[in-house]
Amino acid sequence: MSTFTIAIHGGAGTILKEDMTPELEKAYMDALNDALEAGYGVLQRGGSAVNAVKAACILLEDNVLFNAGRGSVFTKQGLQEMDAAIMDGANLDAGAVAGVRNVRNPIALAIEVMQHSNHVFLSGQGANDFALQQGIKLEADDYFYSQFRYDQWKAVKDTDDYVMDHQHESKDELIRDKKFGTVGAVACDSNGNIAAATSTGGMTNKKWGRIGDSPLIGAGTYANNATCAISCTGHGELFIRSVAAYDVSCLMEYKGLSLQDAMDIVVRDKLVKIGGEGGMIGVDAKGNFAMPFNSAGMYRGAKSSMGRFEVLIYK
């Protein structure tokens, strides 16, 4: 039995300890721990990498702290439009959705697309129709409402600005962290198969059905047993332009680089040169993992059957 590993992220950006209350920090750490343990438990019981990343992402989507699922930000129209993708490194199967509404767990819908639609990518109303057909759990608009997301949107809704500064109300103080609030997971199971999953609510005040890198296979999400499984978080437009997730795989496949070296080149060099702020998590089929970022912080964690365990926020 080979090493099994899972890594997760809950977004990257200007996340500074001095801006965080102890209560909020504990809430984030607890949420990351819970998601990590959910995914790791699947692997420990001999489950697949696909089911492990699904389990971890669902817990993150259900937590209002993260900009995915329940905690998704408001669009220009004052709605939530969510994107998600998953990829199975064993066979290169993939499923993605964009611009879906009222879907409690977009990652669960992405898996249905991968396994039961004969397509890779569904969007908008068509994706919602497919969700109904597959019995995916839907929620009313008020399930996705959170006061700090609403206040954030209200401040810019009459402008053409989009916002990545998330606001958190904690007792009497307002804490701001410029955060790219995607969630994601990557895993290597005991059979040496790997998978990646990413889910997001996108940008506050986004217009025209904007789609970021998260649901785009090769940009924000990618998995191939021969190289790596990657989930990205950052300024989506720059990750799309650099095809960030697939670029890591290419560096490993064509230049023979290790997972860590390939991810470092993309995150700390290639993305930086074009102003791409954020980070990514990755695993390979040997159970190695890496979690580089070029921002001030990234909500992240990893756990391996070799005894490695970490949950971190800051640099």
Automatic annotation (TrEMBL):
Which chain positions carry the site (Cleavage)? 181-182
Name the source organism. Answer: Flavisolibacter tropicus
Instruction: Drop me one GO molecular function for this one.
Output: peptidase activity
Q: Write out the coiled-coil annotation as residue ranges.
A: none
User: Which PANTHER family does its entry note?
Assistant: L-ASPARAGINASE, N(4)-(BETA-N-ACETYLGLUCOSAMINYL)-L-ASPARAGINASE
Binding-site residues, substrate: 210-213, 233-236
User: Which key words tag this protein in UniProt?
Assistant: Autocatalytic cleavage, Hydrolase, Protease
The name under which this protein is listed is: Isoaspartyl peptidase
Question: Might you name a Gene Ontology BP term for this protein?
Answer: proteolysis
Against Pfam families, the record matches this protein to: Asparaginase_2
